[in-house]
């Protein structure tokens, strides 16, 4: 079963966008894929840190 993705608008400074574009190119990802990867990684780290606090 394919996961459904919901589109949304992201307001971001031109400087941050430029850096994200460079980063995504270095890792052979689309800009959207890079942003999704960064957010997923941050969520995983957050879950791990909450478990260690318990």
TrEMBL record:
One of its GO terms (molecular function) is DNA binding. It holds the Pfam family Arc. Gene3D superfamilies: Met repressor-like. Keywords: DNA-binding. GO terms for biological process: regulation of DNA-templated transcription. InterPro entries: Arc_DNA-bd_dom (IPR005569), Arc_rbn_hlx_hlx (IPR013321), Ribbon_hlx_hlx (IPR010985). Residues 3-45 form the Arc-like DNA binding domain. Coiled coil: none annotated. This is Arc family DNA-binding protein. The lineage of its organism: Bacteria, Pseudomonadati, Bacteroidota, Cytophagia, Cytophagales.
């Amino acid at each position: 079963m394919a996961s459904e993705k919901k589109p949304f608008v992201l307001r971001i400074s031109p400087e941050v966008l430029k850096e994200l574009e460079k980063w995504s190119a270095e890792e052979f990802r689309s800009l959207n894929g890079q942003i999704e990867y960064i957010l997923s990684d941050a969520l995983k780290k957050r879950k791990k840190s909450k478990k260690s606090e318990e």
